[in-house]
Design brief:
105 residues, alpha+beta, 3-stranded antiparallel β-sheet, 3 strands, 40% helix, globular
């Protein structure tokens, strides 16, 4: 059984350094999610609130704060890595936010 998404497995294989593991090992069900353009944080803010409402406070592993989800520190062309503790959580997130052209109802 694989622990983590394909994105997580690729990142660990390619850049499996200690920092990468520290940041993502607790939330290995990673996706590259469309969070929106950097100059327009509305979608990003709604996504973060949705995750907090559904999964609790965000993890900050490099600061010793555990949690069930984590957002990456970089957004590239509107896409940000999001990690979740379980596959089910990742699937719930994708069901709500997986289409960059739609907002959850």
């Amino acid at each position: 059984m694989t622990n983590g998404s394909d994105l997580y497995q690729r990142q660990i294989a390619e850049r499996g350094n200690d920092l990468m593991r520290q940041v993502w090992d607790g939330t290995p069900w990673m996706v590259d999610a469309y969070t929106g353009r950097i100059d327009n944080h509305e979608r990003y803010g709604r996504m973060m609130r949705w995750c907090r409402d559904h999964f609790g406070p965000e993890a900050w592993p490099i600061h010793g704060r555990s949690g069930a989800w984590h957002s990456g520190g970089a957004t590239v062309l509107g896409w940000t890595w999001m990690g979740f503790q379980t596959k089910e959580m990742m699937e719930q997130f994708l069901a709500a936010w997986g289409n960059p052209k739609e907002e959850p109802s």
